[in-house]
Design brief:
The chain has 471 residues and is an alpha/beta fold. 41% of the residues lie in helices and 19% in strands. It folds into three domains: 2-138, PAS domain (Beta-Lactamase, 2-Layer Sandwich); 145-329, 3-Layer(aba) Sandwich (Rossmann fold); 333-468, Helicase, Ruva Protein, domain 3 (Orthogonal Bundle). Strand 5 (97-106) and strand 6 form a beta hairpin.
């Protein structure tokens, strides 16, 4: 008969004396039903005799400790792990405990964070017969926060499609960047996959179990940027939360912060960011103490930052701090040979999402798509394919499902007279782009949001292009 008695943090079990005494303990673990139960629960269970020899280790415990369940039987606990087992203290002082946290340093596996309970087993004369040790590995706080808040990478390098040599170079370089902790700057036009690259780098990095916090510097109201990024102490301004608020940099501690559209960051915030990049410290608004964070920074922009520096919109010192590793995501115009691959990929993905059969692609469709200048890059291509799948009534994808402006652009480009062929190409592209933006603006009666959506470019890019073409 096993009788449990429990007082706050000490749990003792009184086992009727057996001969030899360990037989009682062994039988607990060897009963088939009990064995099935202990092997199926999520915690590791280790049963030791009073001298510290292993009587039983369940499968989960073997997995957690990276040991073989059978090979440890009968061995002394100190000979099977490469750290000092905390259970030795229980064997020495006879004090059990419930749900206690331990951080253990293993030479082979580094820092291990355990949640443990130790139950002391005694006979009727209160002599210790052994210990039941239950344990599980605890995620670090930031892993837990990342899991709860969903601040995880949504894409990995496997999701990034492309065979073009310049594109492959960008992917290879990003894989290398993922292995370091240096700051990364991703430059590229709108819709070229900058955010996907940031996700993939975080996902492939040592910090992947930590949070990935995304901040779009262009969408934050100017007055809120500082508190969003750096947080505030209680009562620091009207409307502030009583308990204060940790900013994105603190939330990203142990992980990565992705600062999208970095060129839109106001100059005073650029100075504060520079300090974080230099010594990893900052203070919350209204706070006096310096907060140190271990956060990797990935920034992205579709602007030419050197031009922004010349126009005194961007700090040069910040540019060089961010630009330790620079990745350029090529525009779709520069990798038109990837169009068939990308079209196939998006056709399959969207047919699946919209529960359609995968249509056959008319080769003429690919000819047309390969000649279009794609101002909205891959995002625009994906939108075009998704639209085609939705409106398609057959299992063929033909030019009837392509937007009219794309079909119209095919081989109807007016060629201005000029001696230099590369100038001609650029001018043609610009003309097509200008024409397309003007046409779409007219179609949506000047609605910028809708127009940017239809073109597959961000509102900022649309504004910039409208200014460029004086529209
Ligand atoms: N190489 C790629 N393979 C597959 N899909 C891609 C690729 N690049 C981009 N995409 C698709 O295009 C979409 C837009 O990419 P993303 O948001 O990363 O672009 P961006 O450069 O950050 O654009 P913006 O500057 O407008 O924010 C993604 O959600 C993804 O669906
Ligand atoms: Mg983006």
């Amino acid at each position: 008969m096993v009788q449990w008695t429990s007082t706050s943090h000490i749990v003792d079990i009184d086992i009727q004396e057996q001969n030899p005494p360990q037989a009682g303990l062994l039988s607990i673990a060897s009963e088939p039903i009990l064995k099935t139960i202990v092997d199926s629960i999520a915690d590791g269970i280790l049963i030791l005799d009073a001298a510290g020899y292993v009587l039983y280790l369940n499968q989960q415990g073997a997995n957690i400790l990276d040991l073989s369940q059978t090979q440890v039987m009968g061995k002394h606990i100190t000979t099977i792990v490469d750290f000092r087992p905390v259970i030795l203290d229980v064997l020495e002082n006879g004090q059990g405990y419930l749900e206690k946290e331990f951080i253990i340093h293993s030479p082979s596996r580094g820092k291990l964070h355990f949640m443990k309970s130790a139950i002391v087993l005694r006979d009727r004369h209160a002599r210790m017969m052994g210990v039941i040790d239950t344990f599980r590995l605890v995620d670090s706080m930031h892993t837990m926060v990342a899991r709860i808040t969903g601040a995880k990478a949504k894409f990995s390098f496997n999701d990034i499609i492309g065979r073009d040599p310049a594109f492959i170079d960008a992917v290879s370089f990003s894989r290398i960047a993922a292995q370091s902790t240096a700051n990364v700057l991703i430059e590229g036009e709108s819709g070229t996959g900058k955010e996907m690259f940031a996700h993939a780098i975080h996902h492939a990095s040592m910090r992947s179990s930590g949070p990935l916090i995304i901040v779009n510097c262009a969408s934050l109201p100017r007055s809120l940027i500082e508190s969003e990024l750096f947080g505030y102490e209680s009562g620091s301004f009207t409307g502030a939360r009583k308990e204060g608020f940790p900013g994105k940099f603190e939330q990203a501690n142990g992980g990565t912060i992705f600062l999208d559209e970095i060129a839109e960051l106001p100059l005073d915030m650029q100075s504060k960011l520079l300090r974080v990049l230099q010594d990893h410290t900052f203070s919350r608004i209204g706070g006096t103490k310096n907060i140190t964070v271990d956060t990797r920074v990935i920034a992205a922009t579709n602007k030419n930052l050197l031009a922004e520096i010349r126009n005194t919109n961007f700090r040069e010192d910040l540019y060089y701090r961010l630009n330790v590793l620079c990745i350029h995501t090529p525009s779709l115009r520069e990798r038109l040979d990837d169009i068939p691959l990308l079209v196939n990929y998006f056709v399959q993905k969207n047919a699946l999402n919209h529960s359609r059969t995968i249509p056959e692609i008319d080769p003429f469709v690919l000819d047309i798509l390969k000649e279009y200048p794609w101002p909205g890059n891959i995002r625009e291509l994906e939108n075009v394919i998704e639209r085609a799948i939705i409106i398609s009534q057959s299992d063929q994808l033909t030019i009837d499902q392509l937007p009219q402006h794309i079909v119209n652009s095919f081989r109807h480009v007016p060629v201005p007279e000029t001696a230099n062929p590369s100038d001609t190409n650029i001018r043609n592209l610009e003309q097509m782009e200008k024409h397309e933006i003007r046409r779409t603006l007219k179609e949506v009666e000047g609605n910028i949001s809708l127009c940017s959506k239809l073109l597959g470019i961000s509102r900022n890019t649309l504004y910039r292009k409208m200014k460029q073409y004086a529209l």
